[in-house]
Amino acid sequence: MNKHGGYYGDDYEEIADFSVNINPLGVPEKLIEALKEELEKMKRYPEIDGISGKEVLGQYLGIHSENIILGNGATELIYLYARSLRPEKVLIVEPTFNEYSKAFKVAGSNIYNYYTDEEENFKIQVEKLISKIDDINPNVLVICNPNNPTGVFTDTDKLLLILHKLNEINAYLFVDESFIDFADKDSLIPLVEKYNIFILRSMTKIFAVPGLRIGYGIGKRDTIFQLNQLKEPWTINSLALRSIPVLLEDSDYLKKTQGWYHEEKQFLYNELKNIPNIKVIESETNFFLIKLLKGDANSLRKYLLNKKIYIRSCDDFQGLSNKYIRIAVRIRRENSKLIKELKQYMKD
């Protein structure tokens, strides 16, 4: 059974769901109106390869559409990439999203892990990672940046040192930038033609549309061509395709998001730091990893669920345990409620 964030109970509307890392401002109104007009077109097949979506994304990102592949969510592209390359050895920076290891295991790869250290705030230590690369000689290195669940971002200058090492052994870097829209950090997109990089992106998080399943990948044209040889047709439906230009053009929604996000994230972080018996890991994106110095994730989750609050236990992440939870940045009312109940739990 796959374990991810998200509450699925019948009382979903009553729950403050901190387990999913999506924009709590909800689906943009402009998108809702646009999709109402699109419903009549559902009787027609969508484009077989989503070319219109790739062209719009290419213009938005300043790259050629042939450097882009669309997926039914970012997860489809993780499995497609693994299935296409079928690397013998894959090195994954942990703790991180567990679908990477699952995808490469399905493809027959041998999985190796480089563990970031809590004492170093879960930051990649470049010399240690390069030493691990020397030991293993992997075909693919996987990094989530910003990382899920730690929220840590690795700067481009450090990634370039790692890329130079990978180039020496003709290895690939698979980097997941699904949360970079919240990070206000530089992407590796300008480097895709120079290095063997595949960049994974998602429209789910920033635009709050997980049900539409809109993911995309960026890489060298020959890499994208190789992936397309194994990709099934019609994996992007017509509503998802229509959504891409509408979302990218909705500057008002993005401005509203930035205005809410920076203030609310700082508020939540400041409040969390003042709660006894928890340790908050500094984050560059829209969620926080928290270590519980009292109790455990399962007991806390049960306690909070009785208060109509749902959190993500991190016991299934490689390198973590049931002493860790992950919470998303939500709206002020929900954040304040969470803070109140966390204080009460730690006091009892």
Give a description of the structure.
This protein has 348 residues and is an alpha/beta fold. It folds into two domains: 111 residues, Aspartate Aminotransferase, domain 1 (Alpha-Beta Complex), CATH 3.90.1150; 220 residues, Type I PLP-dependent aspartate aminotransferase-like (Major domain) (Aspartate Aminotransferase, domain 2, 3-Layer(aba) Sandwich). The protein contains twelve helices and 13 strands. The strands form three sheets. It has a seven-stranded mixed β-sheet, with helices on both faces. Strands 9-10-13-12 form a four-stranded antiparallel β-sheet, covered by helices on one side. Strands 1-11 form a two-stranded parallel sheet. β9 and β10 form a beta hairpin. The chain is globular. The protein starts with 15 loop residues before the first strand and ends with a helix. The model has no long low-confidence stretch (mean pLDDT 95).
